[in-house]
Amino acid sequence: MNTLKFLFAIWKTNLQSAMEYRASFLTQVIGMMVNNFIYFAIWIIFFERFKDVRGWGVNDMYVTFGILASAFGIVSLFFGNAFMLSDVINKGRLDYYLSMPKPVLLHTVSSRMISSGMGDFAYGFVSYALSGYFTWDGLARFLLAMLLAATVFAAFLILTQSLAFWFGMMSNFSNLVLNAMLTFGIYPITLFDNYAKLILFTIIPAALMGAVPAEFIRAFTWQTLGQLLLGAFGFLTLAILLFRAGLRRYESGSAIQTEV
Amino acid sequence: MTSIIVHNLQKVFQTKRKAAGLSGSMRSLFKPEYSTVEAVRKISFQMETGELLGFIGPNGAGKSTTIKMLTGILHPSGGEASVLGFVPWKDRQKLAFQIGTVFGQRPQLWYHLPAMDTFTLFGKIYELDDSETKKRIDFLAEAFEIRDLLDVPVRKLSLGQRMRCEVAASLLHRPKLLLLDEPSIGLDVVAKQHIRDAIRRMNQEEGVGVLLTSHDAGDLEALCKRVIIVNHGQIVYEDKVSNLKRKFLTTKLVEVRYAKQVAKDFSVKGAKILKVGRYGVKLQFDSAQTPVDSVITRLSEMGDIMDITISDPPLEEVIAKIYEQVREGKQELT
């Protein structure tokens, strides 16, 4: 209960901080929605030409892109520091979180809000509504799948960025695999053979952020729910264990830091 | 009652070494070389409950590393420590409820928001009731004279105002022990005095113990009863501040700037002239033998003073004196 209160207080402070600069806040939110619309227009043009890619049509793409955008948005909004964890570790900025009486990983990742995430989050719902698959029980599945996909995504970010404890600056590597995750997440899963699928469920778990949740939203099956739950809790556990192991190697630093 | 017990505490860092230039970078890419830096070398000390203890030394002496181990931020490479009965790196969260920390170069106030928002957030982090948080903010606002600053975005505060807010924020949850790492770094004389007064008041009124690191001997003189001096990761001196002052902080440095040119035969009885410029003079005197006010009076008789600075000798000089006395057998290295 105290942890929830603490999280709400942090998120409220993040929102206050983001809204200090009204113009920047609004342009980021609206800009990201426009950016997503423009990006998705390419897929619409593609599917107008080819109609179907191994059983996937534009409606499936609407759902897949929608869930991916909303999951990305949730992580950006509520756990924005997960994108910058490597930098936080390298510049010794974990000192601040370690001197506070709260779980250090949760406190660190929740202490930044990326305003553009609000645009991604909202865009995901619009994309789902336009997909032609919209039903009320589908919406309930969309919400659950979004949370589980966001968990996988946040855990994946923490895993890659925590390598900074061992290898120093990892933000470029993390951006590289993050882009791979988002790119493969939006591709129709039917394009890939079994070996590629294995990679997309494990090393770069893009399938757990795009194709599997999309399938779960279109129609409930225990198999897809099981895959999502196992993926979310498995990756989260791994991320927490790796971060904890890394924390023992933390060397702090003398760079000047500011809480924003 | 003892609040801090440290025994043979040690911290070793692995540091990558690289020769200068592109060829050095290429070699380092394929065959990186590392060296070991012993930042803290098996130090042992104790601190009593409610004590004002100065932990001072020059830059790179190991002060901050020690504080970071005592707050649980860093895991030590060896040795033991107990802070308020907790092993810091094992019971970090429990300990954090009992201590307050201020890192001079690591602000904890949210930069874009007024300090009041950080205070409110800290109330939640330290699990205080809203009414308790409000009462405590009222008290600290008065004690640190920051009432008018609380609604101003932190980015608009001066460094001195911000540091007062920083120290006040660290006391929100009524800690038993305050660990201050260079709280006066970069502050002017007035701002330093404000911070020192407020810390002294919290020590007297609430019995908060204070472990203060600084490379400014003035902090030590103004606040602490006992001092530990560290250099190269080792404790080189541990004694009462009064003894340290008597033995090593006997001289003062004075820099004066005059409105008109300085007389060629400039002299002050009891003071050694270090440097004479056209408009300014730098001199040194033994404050135990020559009272400060007599030097100031004499300096003001020499012309219209535009600016004057009185300071302690740098800590490096104090440490050099300690080593000198060790060599001469007058003092034992701790």
Structure description:
The complex is a heterodimer of chains A (260) and B (334). Chain A has 260 residues and is mainly alpha-helical. In chain A, 73% of the residues lie in helices and 0% in strands. Chain A has one domain. Chain A contains 13 helices and no strands. In chain A, helix 2 packs parallel to helix 7. Chain B is an alpha/beta fold. Chain B has 2 domains: 213 residues, Rossmann fold, CATH 3.40.50.300; 62 residues, 2-Layer Sandwich (Alpha-Beta Plaits). Chain B has 11 helices and 13 strands. At the A-B interface, helix 1 and helix 5 of A face helix 2, helix 3 and helix 4 of B.
Main sheet of chain B: which strands, in order across?
5-6-7-3-8-9
Q: Which topology of the largest domain in chain B does CATH recognise?
A: Rossmann fold
Arithmetic mean of pLDDT of chain A:
90
The secondary structure category of chain B is: alpha/beta
Q: What is the count of DSSP helices of chain B, taking H or I runs of 4+ residues?
A: 11
Low-confidence stretches of chain B: none
Number of strands of chain B: 13
- Judging by the overall fold, what is the CATH architecture of the largest domain in chain B? 3-Layer(aba) Sandwich
- What kind of sheet is the major sheet of chain A? none
Backbone CA Rg of chain A = 19 Å
Order of helices and strands of chain A: HHHHHHHHHHHHH
β-strand amount of chain A: under 5%
Structural class of chain A: mainly alpha
State the distance separating the first and last CA atoms of chain A. Answer: 26 Å
Q: Specify the overall morphology of chain B.
A: globular
What descriptors fit this protein?
heterodimer, A: 260 residues, mainly alpha, 13 helices, B: 334 residues, alpha/beta, Rossmann fold, Alpha-Beta Plaits, 2 domains, six-stranded mixed β-sheet, four-stranded antiparallel β-sheet
